[in-house]
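Q: I'm teaching a short session on how sequence maps to structure, and I want students to see two examples side by side rather than one. Could you give me a first protein with its sequence written out and its structure tokens following it? Keep the formatting plain so it prints cleanly on a handout.
A: Of course. Example one:
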Amino acid sequence: MIFSEDDYRFMYAALQEASLALEEEEVPVGCVVVHDNRIIGRGYNQNIKLNDPTAHAEMIAITAASNHLHSSRLNECTLYCTLEPCLMCTGAIIHSRIKKLIFAAFDPKAGCCGSVCNHAGDGRFNHKVEVYSGLMETESLFLLKNFFEKLRN
């Protein structure tokens, strides 16, 4: 897929969210939800800060977007994330009926949109998400690699 200028702009916003996570010494993953070419939900990983294993960037952004639209259905929305969503987040993406998912980097240990499994593209669920990957992958991996290298030292 050839990504649009808007796709780059929104993924850059997700990377800014990931930078907020990095500042708080959380795994640097960021996410935005877009509706009608406007960001209506933002999130970054806050698992440690909130003592909550469900406080992933995607979950926070989906909740914010749902509150903005006053609806649990996000059918006309696109979710941009700096890392391939895990099982929990992929489930939330499916249940919220998000139309399109664009993520930067694959997660070979926990990703459920093509790496470990592909629940987002599994036709057996009641909703199928359009999934695209690789947008600003280098920038996302840079944040993640630096975070984990620093953590190990």
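Q: Perfect. Now a second example for contrast.
A: Example two:
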Amino acid sequence: MALVHPEGYAIVQALAARGVIGDFRAPDVLRFGFSPLFLGYAQVWDAVEALRDVLATAAWDTEAFHTRAAVT
């Protein structure tokens, strides 16, 4: 699954801080891989809830999540 958001990098970092691992592709793409062999319904639900919360509260909008690392 891929989503586009102008603050994609910071959002992926905020989700990683909550244990939801995604991938960022410049300039603004958030990518998430879902494998039915490894993930259950509850884990996908929890990841979507974390994404909803990060977006609704703008939890991504901190200096720590905007600082780009060499490897994402």
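Q: What should students look for in example two?
A: Point them to this: The chain is about 45% helix and 10% strand. Also worth mentioning: The chain has a mean pLDDT of 92.
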